[in-house]
Amino acid sequence: MAERSTAAVDVADNSGDEPLTAKADQSTADGEAQNRERDTDDVEAQGSGGTTSPGKVSPPELHSGHKLARRYRLEECVTRLDGFSSWRAVDEKLRRAVGVHLLPADHTRARSVLAAARSSALLGDPRFVQVLDAVEEDDLVYVVHEWLPDATELTALLAAGPLEVYDAYQMVSQVAAAMAAAHREGLAHLRLNPNAILRTSSGQWRIRGLAVNAALRGVSSDTPQRTDTEAIGALLYAALTQRWPYESDAYGLAGLPKDVGLIAPDQVRAGVHRGLSELAMRALANDGATASRHESPCTTPEELVKAISEMPRIRPPEPAFTAPPEYQRTTYQQGTYGRPAPHPRVTQPVPTPPAPLQSRTGKALKWAVSALLIAALGLGSWQLADALMDRGNQSEDTNETQTDDGNDKNSDKAKPVHTLGIKGAQEYVASGSAQAAGDVDKTYDDDSSTYWRTKRFIQGPELAPYKPGVGIVYDLGSAQKISAASIGLRYGGDHTTIVLYATDSLSPSTGVDGMKKIGTATGTGTSLNVKASKSLKTQYVLLWVTAVPNAPSDGYSSAGYKQAITDLKFTG
Fold first, then answer.
1. Quick one: angle between helices 274-283 and 165-184, nearest 10?
2. Could you read off the pLDDT of 254-275 as tens digits, one per residue?
3. Alpha carbons within 13 A on the beta-carbon side of 64
4. Taken in order 145, 148, 151, 156, is the CA torsion positive or negative?
């Protein structure tokens, strides 16, 4: 048996300096077509029977039911191409579905695939489909990755039509931010296409195949940042128009008409958002041309992220108004309480009103009611006059504002409060790596479905000693007096602790110990209110998370200690 070498086993939900652990159990149910690593060239190469081109290394002869490392049971082959194969499999140890890429150990690209898998696993960014294992064993090299049965490929989404404006905006924002983070760590994708982009059931976008897909196919680039940026532009173009921005058809999408060149999305399809149309043109290889020809091209994911941040934010669509059902009075209000309800389409007799009171008793009752009304009116008039006189006496002496027991009347009046505007924000990293630096603006975008999230921690609820805390610095535009903050939380449970500090800039010059504390609170639900314990003015506020609850598995990570922030509002 060949020596087994393993890279980053079960690091799907870990990054930075958080401890490593195995993921929690997930369903082993059959995945959906969106998890298959298929491309246009894959389909062509499969043909009938999945043969490969002459002269290329044949993939290992494996079959459903074969088990790797006495743990990964192969279930279904989804790709067979150029000497490697990709499978849906089951991790019997953790009882979850996984994906597996397999190729012979003597394959010309085996070493580069292992290196790419190890690098991708170490990134640990939850916006990417995570590499769980990278192994060389028994003359085989295999890479194990997450399988997302609740996710849908962008290919399948576009088959139904172009994306809504807000969905396209969210897709390009999240993909660009994720790729910018990857390139900062020296990693490129080089195979970004609609098959590599997945949307989960929670509305988050995930990228699969970082570095690994390109290594499997022997793809390289002298300008990897430009290559990935152009690919993101093509994804946005397709999302807006349901067309592929090149002459050839690809990924189930029709290409552009021949001999017309690259035309802006808003010229291809009516009603396309002008800002997103121009953004797609800035990202595509276009000789510097854009929809308006006034903006410079974007050549790196970082430049694309900056261009997106400079756009007016696109808000989610308002929920469709549904007219309430016609108001139906109750049987009692209709005067039929105790009687059977009328049958539909049957003319009902008009009830005869009772005869007026004409007896002596009736006349006496009317006189008594009249007398009571007159007395009530007189009493009310007297009380009103008395109140007006008291108010006049009080206004003569403006200095005397105390009641008999000495309590100040003015203290009972509620002081007006107003929401403070947030002009910008930046994640504050005291030690280790950032949590989700590209998502800080989602904490104040008035959209409760978007959020900034922490990574998953194995121990808790206190983040120390692994981290002193995690948080975000907010810019209020000018010095403001803060009275409170309301914070929406994604995960309920005990122990969420948040402290507010006044600091000097988006990149504080001191640590937390050198900042002035505004207030602190610990909550148990999905919202938390922090009230200021002292009155002070500041332009920059640090929201500092020091403890998080134990939350269940979701589309980003398995169960562990974690939290996410949304719908933040400061009041003054």
1. 30
2. 999 888 888 999 999 999 999 9
3. 5
4. positive
CATH assignment of 152-310, among 2.30.180.10, 3.40.30.10, 1.10.510.10, 3.40.50.300: 1.10.510.10
Across residues 524-550, what is the average pLDDT? 91
Task: Give the residue carrying structure tokens 């990755």.
Answer: 145
DSSP 439: G
The per-residue pLDDT of the chain, averaged, comes to 79
**Cis link prior to 340 (omega < 30° from 0)?**
no
Domain with CATH 1.10.510.10 in the chain: 152-310
Token pair of 513 as six digits: 């110990």
Q: Name the amino acid, one letter, at 301.
A: P
- Integer Cα distance of 487 and 443 in angstroms: 9
Query: What tokens does 430 get?
Result: 């005291």
Give the 3-state secondary structure of residue 393: helix
One CATH from 3.30.420.40, 3.30.2290.10, 3.30.70.270, 3.30.200.20 for 5-146: 3.30.200.20
Give the number of other CB atoms < 10 A from CB of residue 517. Answer: 16
Give the CATH number of domain 419-571. Answer: 2.60.120.260
Q: What is the pLDDT of residues 281-325, one digit of tens each?
A: 999 976 555 555 557 899 999 999 999 999 998 988 876 555 555
Contact yes or no for 532/465 (Cβ under 8 A): no
CATH 2.60.120.260 domain extents, the chain: 419-571
Instruction: Provide the pLDDT confidence category of residue 553 given band limits of 50, 70 and 90.
Output: confident
Number of Cβ atoms within 10 Å of the Cβ of 299 = 16
| 3-class secondary structure, 347 | coil
For the stretch 396-439, pLDDT in tens is 444 443 333 444 444 445 556 789 999 999 999 887 778 888 89
pLDDT by residue (tens digit) across 24-59? 333 333 333 334 344 433 333 322 233 334 344 554
Angle between helices 165-184 and 224-241 (to 10 degrees): 170
Reference 269, options 296, 293, 236, 295; nearest CA is 236
Residues pairing with 516 in the sheet: 502
pLDDT tens track for 352-393:
555 554 555 556 666 776 777 776 666 666 565 555 555 555
pLDDT tens, position by position, 168-226: 999 999 999 999 999 999 999 999 999 999 999 888 999 999 999 999 999 999 999 99
Please give the DSSP secondary-structure letter assigned to residue 546: E
Q: Where in the chain is the domain with CATH 3.30.200.20?
A: 5-146
How many CA atoms, within 13 angstroms, populate the side-chain half-sphere of residue 287? 3
What is the distance between the alpha carbons of residues 494 and 550, in angstroms, rounded to a whole number? Answer: 8
Q: Is 146 exposed, middle or buried (0-12, 13-18, 19+ CB in 10 A)?
A: buried
CB atoms < 10 A from the CB of 296, how many? 10
